[in-house]
Specification:
alpha/beta; Rossmann fold; formyl-coa transferase, domain 3; 2 domains
């Protein structure tokens, strides 16, 4: 089997995370991704620790299955070679500060003349237009400005960044979806198009429920810890050996009764303060107090087994070591390996695609800087060994 977008070739001028996360997804779906990096330096992510030999563990993960060529886009020669590459590709991905590609003469308006079928994707912090368009942005900036930090953490505590780079990775997911959608549209139109993805815009889309509550009530949502503002019990609880979560969103008296019976608190089922979900939310502090005293009596795995037996959604709060050993995730191949030049193989998180007729997942190792220069400059552009050597001497590649 082959990947669902096998045969699609992507010219990836992005770096760090948002763009590379997008092209990682597309590579795992079968695309050939050619990463364009600065000669001698490469993607700055190559130097972000921890290191595995001479390689960044983060770079290995997000750039698996890609190819690397080096090209100095600040130079006229580099820009000319880039233009010669463009007709051979279906997609171009970049995540520079808006205006950078135009400075190189490689913006969409210029490039589309060379390849009208090209899908050209730009990811930036704030989008290509608007008062903040030319501001640089990193993950924590868009998490802050998009509101997610204002609703994350415990009440009355300082704002908390989500523990993963949601500003970058969420933008990468939306960007990959936009690329695949454009490629589908191209089947009928024969034409590519320009895609403008803003990391801040993506954060707002992810906050749809928070905005729904704000627009309907006028109240500004704040952090509620692990609890849900619209459901109870729906939060983390402390057992005698750690934490686990319970997630109930129901007015069904039988389900609520099963929960209360399972934890041997039939009195809560009879208590009028907890008769339905709205009542439980309205009397959350009292309910939390009763449940805290109950759940501390057993281990989290005992409670998970007890509650699972009566079909209550629940689960332990796992640290990353526990996640890496989770039998369900191992069965689903969500932690897989790729080849590595020092260790033989290296473990990475997989992408979550499972198709009946397509093969997905990491296509190979992450590339060494400029590893595929000769392959593309020679076979694709027809440059001779002497021409490639000359470009190398000049620092163009």
């Amino acid at each position: 089997m082959i990947g669902p977008i096998d045969g699609i070739r992507i010219l990836d001028v992005s770096r760090i995370l948002s763009g590379p996360f997008c092209t990682m997804i597309l590579a795992d779906l079968g695309a050939e991704v050619v990463k364009v990096e600065m000669p001698g330096r490469g993607d700055p992510a190559r130097n972000v620790g921890p290191m595995v030999g001479h390689d960044s563990a983060s770079f290995i993960s997000v750039n698996r299955g890609k190819k690397s060529i080096t090209l100095d886009l600040n130079s006229e020669n580099g820009q000319n070679i880039f233009r010669k590459l463009v007709p051979h590709f279906d997609v171009l991905v970049e995540n520079f500060v808006p205006g950078t590609m135009a400075k190189f003469g490689l913006d969409y308006q210029s490039i589309q003349k060379l390849n009208s079928a090209l899908v050209y994707l730009s990811i930036s912090g704030f989008g290509q237009d608007g008062p903040d368009a030319h501001r640089p942005a990193m993950d924590i900036v868009v998490q802050a400005m998009g509101g997610i930090m204002s609703v994350t953490g415990e009440p009355e505590s300082p704002p908390v960044r989500a523990g993963v780079s949601l500003g970058d990775s969420v933008a990468g997911v939306f960007a990959a979806l936009a690329v695949v959608s454009s490629l589908y549209q191209r089947i009928d139109s024969g034409r590519g198009q320009y895609i403008d993805i803003s990391m801040l815009d993506c954060q707002v889309t992810m906050m749809e429920n928070v905005f729904s509550r704000y627009f309907s009530t006028g109240n500004v949502p704040g952090p509620t810890g692990s609890s849900h503002p619209l459901a109870a019990p729906f939060q983390a609880f402390k057992a005698n050996d750690g934490y686990f979560v319970v997630a109930m969103l129901t007015d069904d008296q039988e389900i609520w009764g099963n929960f209360c019976n399972a934890i041997e608190r039939e009195d809560l089922h009879k208590d009028s303060r907890f008769v339905d979900n709205a009542s439980r939310v309205g009397n959350l502090e009292a309910l939390q107090g009763y449940l805290a005293k109950t759940f501390i009596k057993k281990s989290r795995f005992e409670w998970v087994e007890i509650l699972s037996n009566v079909r209550i959604p629940c689960g332990p709060i796992n640290d990353i070591q526990a996640v890496a050993r989770d039998p369900q995730l191992i069965h689903r191949s969500m932690l897989t390996t790729i080849p590595h030049n020092v260790n033989g193989e290296w473990k990475v998180a997989n992408t979550p695609f499972n198709f009946s007729e397509s093969l997905t997942g990491p296509a190979g190792p992450s590339p060494a800087l400029g590893e595929h220069n000769r392959e593309f400059f020679s076979s694709l552009l027809g440059l001779s060994n002497e021409e490639i050597a000359s470009l190398l001497d000049m620092g163009v590649i």
